[in-house]
User: Fold these one by one.
Assistant:
Number 1:
Amino acid sequence: MNRELMGVFPLWKPAGMTSFTAVKEVGKRFGTKKAGHTGTLDPDVEGVLPVCIGRATKIVEYLTANDKTYIGEVTLGFSTTTEDSSGDMVNQLSVDRLISTEEASSVLTSLIGPLEQTPPMYSAVKVKGKKLYEYAREGIEVERPSRMITIYQLELLSDPRRNEDGTVSFSFRAVCSKGTYIRTLSVTIGEKLGFPAHMSHLIRESSGSFQRKDCLTLEKLDEAVEREEEEECLISIETALSMFPVLKVDENMEERILQGAILSIPEEVSNVDESVWALYNQQGECLALYKRDEKRAGKMKPEKMIRTIRS
């Protein structure tokens, strides 16, 4: 390719592929090693995985921070080492009573709001510089730091059904904050109902503003590459950063921004309750994200440079 492509490719990651491999495959098709995803999906999970290409890798952290929507399935009757169906069975207890739709729905409702979670041992969370799943593979159990997450919505999608092996399963839809483990949430749902449980299926329906309907598979990207239309598959940095209020600047101010200068907050927005703005030039290109300067009243400073004087 003659020039660097930049933007966000809305990948529908297939089940059976790691997020690392998915990013590598997308980058290969765009002819760049400069690619990064906005939130890991487990290998067995399919769904929305926005991949930042080129200069768009600078905004990964802002897209990662967004809320996520999942369609999950919990199965009551046994728990596993990984908290999903890929792990070995840990505890087993026959579901010897009827789990009604009303009871399941009530439990889900009770979990809406702030919730303390302890990441599963089979996760990418780091403890003392080492990922938890690395400890798990060595058979080492370490103390895991709990953290607060938020469940914004949690609704029952199917009536509880009894499976041939005596377990009981039902599906749910969850809208949650960054860092939420649906595997762990499934275990908690089981505990509330009085049974060991695990997550038996999961799809990520959305990640921030990226929805399932917006996504493309690797196969669709291959078709675009054959037609030399892969650039049309990218969502612009400007669209991806649409959650931030926009400030347009003139050419003189543009040059100062490209040099990372500290600027005065425009009077018309000085009283607005915003802490970060996206600064655009007259051509509609996002130059940088700026934030209020806590040390200088009425000033703002660079939060993230998207373009510089050299680019």
Note: The domain at 7-66+209-237 is CATH 3.30.2350.10 (Pseudouridine synthase).
Number 2:
Amino acid sequence: MDGLKSLSRLSFRQLAQQTLNFCLIVSSALMIWKGLSVVTNSESPIVVVLSESMEPAFARGDLLFLTLPSAPVNIGDICVFKVEGKSVPIVHRVLEIHTSTNNTQFMLTKGDNNPVDDRGLYNQGQMWIRQEDVVGKVQG
């Protein structure tokens, strides 16, 4: 009978230790994510490429490290942006830039592997991506 009690205590102790280890791993991952968010000044410092639209530069499944551009975006920069009403961000290269009189940037983007620009991906009637739609600029 004593052997059964010590076995159940051992099982409980192992379960408690595994639960604590799992909680430490999850909290460490969250701290690293939030730390990267602060350092890069980006809500999403790491993103995954979901399509082949940027091949050969990036393949599906590649991880991209982002920073929020403090300087204006330039033609040729690869940016991650969100289209209003759509949940999945897009990773494409800036093809054209239009700057308004109040220094607001509007960008036209295109995937390297796509035959046409992204106007078909934007909302109906939208011709440009605004600076505030940019989630980050690809750094590596």
Note: The CA atoms of residues 14 and 20 lie 10 Å apart.
Number 3:
Amino acid sequence: MLETWLTTLGLEVPVLGAPMGGRAGGDLAGEVSRAGGLGMLGAARYTTPDWIAAEAAIARERGGRVGIGLMTWSLDTDDSLLDAAIAEKPTLLSLSFGDPAPYVPRAHAAGIPVASQVNTLDDMRVAEAAGVDVIIAQGGEAGGHTGRIGTLPLLQELLEATDLPVLAAGGIGTGRGLAAVLAAGAQGAVIGTALLASPETVGPDYARTAIVEASSADTVYTSVFDRARHQPWPERWGGRAIANDFTRDFHGVDAPDSQLESTYDPADPRRGVVYAGEAVGLVHGERPAGAVVRQIAADAERLLSRWA
């Protein structure tokens, strides 16, 4: 068994399922937890408190425990999702993409440890000052909204700069990736793209097909999908997605948002968004989430045991 700070939370393997908005519901989170990791619900801005309660119950029924991830910048205008998340007593609460300082004390008062996913050294210092318990170094290889610094440079920088436990996210899709970040000093990994072809994910069937068919060179870091859907993400965070006709037409093009909105079609794989990271090239078929997590953990343990 790989024992780290993360496994002190009751996990058998040091793996979090990424809290992917619109993709990570109770079924996916529950299967990650049942495999020994911790599945995280992705509570996007448009999520409701009732959704959090219902999906947390599903996750617990499947896997016994659940984590919840929230977007901090959206809590600044409406913190009802925070109240709903705290009411579920998750194993871990993730407060990312913004300063978590106003919200960490409320989680700690309920006995809930807090993670914060960061994209720069300055972000880490903000999260550290806010009193979070664990830092997640999310590199630009990650799918969905992320920063621009690569996972390995960012991870090294943060490990040198903090005494807090650090997890790695972005580009980790096999046991080799988990072994690499553990060997570097991380206390675990967050995996997202590796799970996106799993049948437990929320979303259209074409999204899983797109994940399986894409290579690691087929992603683009862009804001065009946020603009098309009027998602008010702060400008500093773009999203990494699989390139398609929509991105080829509009990424880097000076087009009005109204044109993007009229052209975007969530039902069309050529015109809708499938967020995914550069680890998409490691996904070769639709596999249950639990099988993915168990193989990543077993392969990492086997690789690391060569040097034990």
Note: The chain has a mean pLDDT of 96.
Number 4:
Amino acid sequence: MSEVTAVPLRPIKKGAVTRLWLGIAVAVLGAGAVAWAGTSKSVAISGTNEQFFAWHAGQPGVKTTPSGLQYQILKAGKGPSPTDTDIALVNYKGALRDGTVFDESKQPTPFPVTQVVPGFSEGLKLMPKGSKFRLWIPSALGYGERSPDPKLPANSVLVFDVEMIDFRSQAEVQQQMMQQQIQQQMQGGGQPGGQPQQ
């Protein structure tokens, strides 16, 4: 018959059991929070536009305007921002929520601030020169139910990365264009509307 060696147990310190239960509770709550965050993100990404914007509003660095436009400053600029009477010169890339790119500038592109979708216009008016923003435009501030392109499903959320290179008033741009036309006419030979000199 073999002998069983008894190992004496040390007494448990006061409060050790309480700390053990607290540790277990914290671990369970942490795991629950991680699971909930993962679930809320997947629901938001694959869910409705409203679910997406509700979840996205709480993401770090994202700001929401009263109209529902969400934006994030990727690079801060300095000075004033364009107004409704200005033409903005920008680089941009437009994508859907899933990252599918539907439009992208190949070179700096001028946009009259009031002649773009309302969410893009609102975003431009927040951007000083030299800044770069990411805009999340709700469908009501974008194209809504009417899609201008087969690549854009109706009621799409539009996601734009926009770099504000410069902006000028429409009056300045028109004056500059007139001056260029006059210079071209003078270089082309004499009187405006006349035949070039031989």
Note: The beta strands are 63-64, 70-75, 86-95, 101-104, 109-112, 132-137, 158-169.
